[in-house]
Every structure is written in structure tokens, then in C-alpha cells.
């Protein structure tokens, strides 16, 4: 089925779902209206059921229609440059470099590590790796003062000599052949991508319950959304942890912007220039995730502020005539959806459980349960197959956290996202330590 037919079919399916949901919701809306009025009742139902239902149905049917192209790595791939911004990464930078040089990439490559004024021995570890491995193609830019991730990445970009450049976080490690996979997606696709996002997997899932929850978020939530966004030629985030870009286009748009969410704002700048952004579902990169709720809160707050920064920087994306515009509008509704969820749906569930008052937990809300189960099961099977093809497996003993992820993850995450959205909307002061 051609792409535009898949898109139309997914929209049609979502419209049917929405129509049925509205029809079934009318008595529910009228009942809520008798307590809080029509405006609030419609807002609650739209935020709790209608918008999430449309999004889930669109993504779910798209997953079933999606047929990933099979990219076979060529014997000769183009040369690449790899940028690593590092700040106080002495505990992991050696492993990151080793995972790159263990790739056996079938062409020339250069690795540029930009030490961002680290207070530890990050620079010494890079020099030690270069000496011990005779890595003449490893370049260290050693800054004395801390400049920030975006600025040092741009500093490295100035020295890049190849047409393709990959960014990797200093605490991330690549799975075998990850470079081949992501470069093959970039150069073999008929879509003429300007950037391609790799697939991020949680590396430290055994360290805490919070980390295990994020394992499922990266595997099921984040990856599935990128997969479908790229299906419609516009993944909204080519994350800094592992993505590839055309060097010429990066330089054309001025490189990484000096923002909290530099990677999402960069991606939107690429899309704003009418370029396409893809996703390589079998180019795996393992990264450390926050192990405590406090650190998780700060990270998701940063990501949420980055989304608002992207809207401020590139509002025209809302009006682009392209398939991925659907996802841009959905992202615009995130602050509203999260607000209604935290202050409408969650209290409604508590009222239903403890006081048997079912005003908010209505029938249309229940309709989302089978849709959510079907969606999560579908992406689980897809991701499990992708991992298996690369010799990876989903860890044992993760079922409890998978259930907690499905049932409660949004509740755990929403306070952080709301804080981020409204901190950026109100233009509150930014500090890496408290955002």
C-alpha cells in the first residue's frame, strides 16, 4: 500500500474511532455538565478520552500498516565523522570509545571528542584510549571552561571533514554494527533523509525500579512514536544520544542551537527547511537513564521545556503541508492533555475506587483500555523481533515493571512534564541543575 493511502486509511480509522467515541460520550458529557458546566465537561472528556484515543488509534493502525524497508549494509559505506560532547564522563568515556572502535566500520571515520571543561579526568581517559589503541583518527578538543553541550558540539562541527556526522552521548555505548545500520538507513533510503535517529535502549535498567520503568518507555513508548513519525517522513526528535546528520545541512541551519532541548530544536529546524528525518529501528545504542525519581523529574522537565522551545523557534511547522504535521499538532496539545490527566482523570479514578463515584471514569475512558493493550502488545512484538535480529533479548523478570509502566507511568511522568511546559511558557530562569 502506498504511503499516502496508508496515511489516509490511518486518518479515516482515527476519525471513525473519534465519531464513535463522541457518540458514546454525549450522555457522559451531559452528566458531568450537571456538576461543572459544559465547558469544563467537554474539556475533561476531550483531554481524557478523545484526543488520546485518536492518537492511539492513528499510531496503532499505522503500526499494522508499517513495512520497514530492509537496508543491507554495503561493503563500502561513506566515511563518517563522530562527535562526542563530554562533561565529567571519566567513568564511561573509555567504554563509549571502545564501543565505537569495536564496530569495524567498513570505511574511514574520525572521532572528535570535545571535553567541555570537565572537572574530572575525562580528557586524560581520552588521551589514554588514543595512546593504547593507536587511534590516529581520534581527536580531542580540550576546553578549559564549561561552555554547554550545544556550543561544544558546534565547536566539533567546525572540524568535521566528512559529509555525514554522527552525534553520540559520552555515556552511551553502541551495539555491534550500529554504525553500519544507521548509515545504511541514511544512504540507502529513497527518502533522502537529512537526519536519522538511532534506537536508544536503557543500559542501566538493573540499577533501580525507576530505571526499569524507563527501559519500557524507551523500548515501547519512544521507539514506537519515532517509528511511525519516520514512516510519515518526519521524526520529531533526532536525539543527541545517537543520530546521524548531513554535515552540509547542519552547517546550513547553524548547527545545534544553544537551548535546553538542543536536539529537538535542531530537528525542528531541519524539518522547517522541508527536509526529512528518519529512524533506524535496528541501530541500537545503550544509554544510562536516571536512576532516581528526582533525576528523572529533572530530565523530563528539560525535555518538556525543549518541546516548548521548539514551538517558539519553529511555529511554522504547525502549518506545513506534510504528513508529520499531525504529530506536531498532537505535541502542541501535550500541556492540555497532561493537565487534564493530572487534575481531572486521576482524581476521577480515585473517586471511583474509594467512593464508587464514576462520573469521570466513564465508558469512553474504558474504551481506551483495549486500544492501549493492543497498541502496547503490537509494539512489544515488533521491538522484540527487532532486538532478536540483532542478537538481543528483552531481559527476564521485567513483567511487573511492564504492568506498572502501562498503568502508572503517565502519572509518574506528568508532574515533571507539566512543570517543564509551564516553566518554559512563563519563561522561568533556566539552570541545568534544577530543570
Main beta sheet: 8 strands, mixed
Number of DSSP E strands:
8
- Broad structural category: alpha/beta
Strand content: 5-15%
Percent of residues in helices comes to 55-70%
pLDDT averaged residue by residue: 91
- Along the chain, the helix and strand elements come as HHEHEHEHEEHEHEHHEHHHHH
Could you give the order of strands across the largest sheet?
A: 3-2-1-4-7-6-8-5
Radius of gyration: 22 Å
Contiguous uncertain segments of 5+ residues: none
CATH arch. level architecture of the domain at 80-319 = Alpha-Beta Complex
CATH superfamily of the domain at 80-319: Spore Coat Polysaccharide Biosynthesis Protein SpsA, Chain A
- By CATH, the topology of the domain at 80-319 is Spore Coat Polysaccharide Biosynthesis Protein SpsA, Chain A
- Classified by CATH, the class of the domain at 80-319 is Alpha Beta
Shape: globular
Query: What is the helix tally?
Result: 14
> End-to-end span in angstroms?
44 Å
